[in-house]
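Consider the tokenized backbone below.
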């Protein structure tokens, strides 16, 4: 006589447990919606307003400058609000939001950390230190004598003595021997032999270039062509 074992039937979950599980979802939603708003960063001397910020990050976002009435609106608008304002296409909104977060964390592009800026122009000069390598620091703009056009090079007047502690070291700027300021977008001031350089706000200085898209078919054709060339070399041997 053959006997079969019958598996015990598991009890069905009660409706009370199901209702408790369903009621927990709205609570989680309410928890996330109660997050405080993100802090709006203060403008900097190099980036004092909305048009300048959009001009620096590039990708033709300056066309949307008139859509933001205040600095706070630029940094507090959500992605949906940016879409309602007409910031298109979606990749432009993602790019703008990415740069907002970078600026919020203090991750500026070249010149963004300068504290002395006049009419969109910042100045960096070399400061000699005894027994140490010279530094390039940001200081208030000082008038320097420039040689006349077409004339012979003249020895510039001695630069005012500046204490290294009075200025600010600018990220992305270095001093190259023999005491020349080197940095992207920095141009030397005439008559200073490269010891003083200035940077002026330009379109797209902080722009992150988009990569060139290569279609899969092009990659396959290049691979097949390389295979044919390799076989031809092997057959010629």
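A designed sequence for it:
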């Amino acid at each position: 006589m053959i006997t079969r074992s019958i598996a015990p039937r598991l009890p069905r979950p009660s409706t009370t447990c199901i209702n408790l599980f369903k009621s927990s979802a709205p609570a989680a939603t309410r928890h996330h919606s109660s997050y405080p708003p993100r802090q709006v960063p203060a403008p900097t001397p190099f980036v004092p307003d909305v048009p300048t910020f959009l001009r620096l990050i590039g990708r033709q976002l300056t066309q949307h400058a008139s859509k933001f009435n205040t600095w706070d609106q630029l940094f507090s608008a959500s992605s949906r609000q940016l879409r309602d304002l007409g910031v298109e296409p979606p990749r432009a909104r993602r790019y703008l939001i990415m740069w907002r977060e970078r600026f919020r964390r203090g991750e500026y592009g070249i010149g963004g950390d300068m504290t002395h800026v006049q009419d969109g122009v910042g100045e960096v000069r070399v400061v000699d230190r005894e027994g140490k390598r010279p530094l390039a620091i940001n200081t208030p703009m000082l008038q320097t004598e420039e040689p006349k056009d077409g004339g012979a090079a003249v020895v510039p007047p001695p630069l005012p003595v500046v204490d290294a502690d009075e200025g600010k070291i600018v990220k992305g700027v270095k001093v190259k021997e023999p005491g020349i300021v080197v940095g992207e977008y920095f141009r030397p001031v005439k008559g200073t032999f490269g010891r003083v350089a200035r940077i002026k706000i330009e379109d797209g200085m902080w722009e992150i270039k988009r990569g060139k898209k290569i279609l899969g078919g092009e990659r396959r054709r290049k691979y097949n062509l390389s295979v044919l060339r390799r076989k031809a070399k092997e057959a010629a041997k």
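Residues 24 and 160 are 69 Å apart (CA to CA).
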